[in-house]
Give the backbone structure.
Amino acid sequence: NIPAFPQKIGIARLSSLTQRLAVFKGKEPVIDAKESERGEISTLEIACGKNKAQFRCTSTMLIKAPKSINDEEDCSITITKEEIKMILDAIRVMSCKKVTLSIRKGGMVQFEIADESNDTFKIVLEAASDTTDDSAVHYYQSAVVVSILKSKMDLDTAVLNIGQMGTIKTSINGHGITMLPQIGDDAEE
């Protein structure tokens, strides 16, 4: 239940923020934002009664993301709660650092999770809309995928819109979220 803020906010450690909010699960925490001298949010204070957690935000200038994302939608997938759970379990069991997403012309979408010895776990989904280009392969940090998909566990189905350059757009509690792919197979950022 993060409110909409009129100031800019940079969140580079989404999984850490999710974990801190999970501490107050089942309660209604109050989220207070502290503004920096630059006019952007520097700290979130999450409070529930006398209990408080603090989350330091990242300067928006340090986030390596484009100012605007003009990635046309390639396809859209509807993913069920069971499929989300399977992907999350596979990431946990395989202890992977990256998730591979393959999109094939004709509407087949595949999540591939590999462990350190390159044993793979593949989950095949059908795209809700046909892909417009040739096949494509994109890579994502598994921690980011886990954070995004965990936020969808309360839904029966979730929609992920995949762009031609690999961006995945969705919403969490009314906030638009864009997950950026890694640049290349070996990229760490």
